[in-house]
Amino acid sequence: MANESIDVTESVLFYLGLAKYISTRGTCPTKQVGAVIVDEGLNIVLSTGLNDAPRGLQRCGAECQNRTIGENSKSCQAIHAEMNAILNAARVGIPITKATMYVTISPCLNCARAIIQSGISAVYASSMSPYEKALDILKQAGVKTAIVSGVSLPRVIMPPWMTSEDTSG
Ligand SMILES: [Zn+2]
Ligand SMILES: [Zn+2]
Questions:
Q1: Residue 151 and residue 140: Cα distance in Å, rounded?
Q2: Which ligand is nearest to the CA of 134?
Q3: 82 is catalytic
Q4: Catalytically annotated residue among 10, 40, 82, 165
Q5: Alpha helical stretches, state H, 24-141
Q6: Mean pLDDT score, 135-162
Q7: CB atoms within 10 A of CB 61
Q8: CA-to-CA distance for 123 and 128, rounded, in angstroms?
Q9: Which of 59, 63, 92, 96 is spaced 20 to 30 Å from 142 by Cα?
Q10: Cα of 114 to ligand 2 centre, how many Å?
């Protein structure tokens, strides 16, 4: 799953870091996942999602504690982060056609199908899930995909007026 000639820019690392930050609020004990949908042209975040139960319903419990991703998921209450980001946009009527999704782990098949159908045109993930087939269907549908490893939380960039006394340049 090499990166297919997609530039790993500062912006890509920033949004993958942001997805990681958002994932820290994920409520399924199996794995915390975060997703961010971005309009690349305007450089604005359109929607975010994490893995959590639908609003008002009971969250995942012990049944998800010792589970491996992709296995015994029938009792999992969570909507996946990618799906949640898409549904959150739908809920408030934000178009996400041709947007880019940044997610902390590559999507499952169901999320990949939703990503394709929602019109998202590219997916960056900061780790690889067991769902290699999901990447295949994204590619088949013309959605660009890239796995970018080694992502950390966004680096703080100080504005010039705050660093003027810094002699290190
Ligand atoms: Zn769960
Ligand atoms: Zn999924």
A1: 27
A2: 2
A3: yes
A4: 82
A5: 81-92, 109-118, 132-140
A6: 88
A7: 12
A8: 12
A9: 92
A10: 9
Q: What's the gap in Å between 56 CA and the centre of ligand 2? A: 20
Ligand 2 centre to CA of 49 (Å) is 11
Starting at the edge strand found earlier in the chain, the sheet holding 44-50 runs 44-50, 34-39, 100-103, 122-125, 144-147
Q: How far is CA 59 from the centre of its chain?
A: 20
| 81-92 vs 109-118: helix crossing angle, rounded to 10 | 30
pLDDT of residue 2: 46
Q: Does this model's pTM top 0.70?
A: yes
User: What pairs with residue 37 in β-bridges?
Assistant: 47, 101
Contact yes or no for 102/18 (Cβ under 8 A): yes
In tens, the pLDDT along 77-98 reads 999 999 999 999 999 999 999 9
Helix (H) or strand (E) holding 48: strand 44-50
Alpha carbon distance 121, 124 (integer Å) = 10
